[in-house]
Amino acid sequence: MPDSIPYESRQPDGTPLANKVCPKCSGAMSPGFLIDRGDHNVGRQALWVEGLPEVSFWTGLKIRNRLKIPVVTFRCQICGFLEFFAPIIPPA
Ligand SMILES: [Zn+2]
After folding, report:
1. Ligand 1 centroid vs 78 CA: distance in angstroms?
2. For 3-48, how does the pLDDT look when each residue is reduced to its tens digit (9 = 90+)?
3. For residue 28, how far is its CA from the centre of ligand 1 (angstroms)?
4. Domain that holds residue 68
């Protein structure tokens, strides 16, 4: 597990989300992410997608023109609690 996470995983004020404390047991939490498997079983970081899911005959779900943010997940090293964040990505 990396000691730091890329800027995409930081809060808007630049404060890293690392070094979080578990809200259930106060244990240390490690950053990570969930993986999705796409075409040809290619692994990709899971995305938060704005709005409610709408089924698409062609693509599975309609996600075109929606805000999409990579999801960062923290896992408690003691109890395993997971906490999810979809940090705002600063414009390039
Ligand atoms: Zn915990």
Report:
1. 5
2. 445 444 445 555 555 578 999 999 999 999 999 887 788 888 999 9
3. 7
4. 7-85
